[in-house]
């Protein structure tokens, strides 16, 4: 029987190993962690940090260049401060995607665990649903759903979440299928443990590592879809500050004022890449066996 | 193999059937009455009634669905409410433009992806691997509309190497096609290239660490033969799935690419149809696009079963 002292030591060792592998992939992971934390802080404190009201127009000061006094990143075609819009855009994008990723994680992994646990008709039905959803190109499905559900932040979060569900279902399903074969699951079933308890006490914690990885990666993916929808004009609406909208808005003046369109795009790239890289590093650190499978 | 193919085909037909129900219901789920939205609020009631009657919008839903499917099998997708011409004509006119970008991008994405994946697996840990991996990470995480804009800004506006718009079809002038299609094709293949090279690299690394590769090495077989003859074949099997997934992404990407480079293809038609509430055009386009995606998946599945007999048994 391991004493609690032993357990503590092992936990500490595990943590050390986790951090060693997590940061062992070189400088890029560290940079990405900084970028992600930076954007999260910016998003949380947006109203405090932003020098101007992101929606305040100023017809006298349209298209101010970068580095102008009082407007560090210049102004857009309505004279709105680009920096403040970028800062508030981080808040919009992160709020939407966090909400979308959270609810789809809960629903998706529940469905996936159910599908894996009761293979039968219920499992087949859930997997068929995934196949069908994936057969409609994701962005097109999201566009149509966005038009049906509307373009406020809540509706867009629902749309984005629907797009992310299949990833969770597949991941939870394939995990449960292999965990289920273990003797301890059979044992708990033989003792007469309830199905629901087996699923959430034993199966869910064992899938947790890979679900966290999917979660991190889909955060980036969801931000990308969100901005694509806004860019196409079916996502979040003006005058809300959202990066995709800003790119769309700046596109018209790409020839004369490229920074208005290029800056928000750069932010999208930075945060999506950061979450993807962090997801990768997390995967290697949480479970080296998963390498190459996600 | 035959029974596997038949099962796959049947499964695809089932998927198409359910997708068609979804596409059919779009029109009823969208807010607002399609006819009123299309004709304007001031249209007299009789006209609205007439158009509703013409489009069988007063029938019960299941009957509407059946009429719709039957008409489609006759190549009749309805008429555009904005352009006043058959949706089938619109699709016939615009799909080639989408394919003129999509197919080369698909092929280029596979080739570049495999090449980069193999090179970085073979030179694992070296500078070239790190550089390539960095670029694939970037290419996966960058929104296509932004890359497109960056390319436009650098190569069209600043350097004047490529025109900003007006896609020339290869049938008209090969040179013009190459000039006008290069940027959209590059932009469209980048994400796919990234995900394929990632997959190829990690599969190669996994296969190289297998026992049979060690045995081959122990037998004194040259490194080149090991990599290209023994490892690559097995490493490529899972890549086929990623290629299948990317077929869908290329089609969906067309929406963004065509909007940036002003190519009047299916993607732009779809966006316009959404914005103008041109329901029949939207239905037709979504259906065609999903059909292409499902068909592409079917081909990939069959290929997969052909390459790897284990799959045939598992899924057959």
Q: What this model shows, in words?
A:
- The complex is a heterodimer of chains A (294) and B (316).
- Chain A is built from eleven helices and no strands.
- Chain A is mainly α and 294 residues long.
- Chain A has one domain (17-290): Orthogonal Bundle (MetI-like fold).
- Chain A is globular and about 75 Å long.
- In chain B, helix 5 packs across helix 8 (174-208) and helix 7 (144-158) crosses helix 8 (174-208).
- The mean pLDDT of chain B is 84.
- The interface between A and B is large, with 42 and 52 residues.
The sequence of SSEs of chain B as H and E is: HHHHHHHHHHHHH
Enumerate the spans of chain A where pLDDT stays under 50 for 5 or more consecutive residues. Answer: none
Task: Give the biggest beta sheet of chain A.
Answer: none
Note the total helix count of chain B. Answer: 13
Rg over C-alpha atoms of chain A, rounded to the nearest angstrom: 22 Å
Q: Strand-residue fraction of chain B?
A: under 5%
Task: Determine the CATH superfamily of the domain at 92-282 in chain B.
Answer: MetI-like
CATH topology of the domain at 92-282 in chain B: MetI-like fold
CA-to-CA gap between the ends of chain A?
36 Å
Helical content band of chain B: over 70%
Strand count, sense and barrel status of the largest sheet of chain B are: none
User: Which residues of chain B form runs of ≥5 with pLDDT under 50?
Assistant: none
Task: Report the CATH architecture of chain A.
Answer: Orthogonal Bundle
Principal-axis shape of chain A: globular
Number of strands of chain B: 0
- Just give the CATH class of chain A: Mainly Alpha
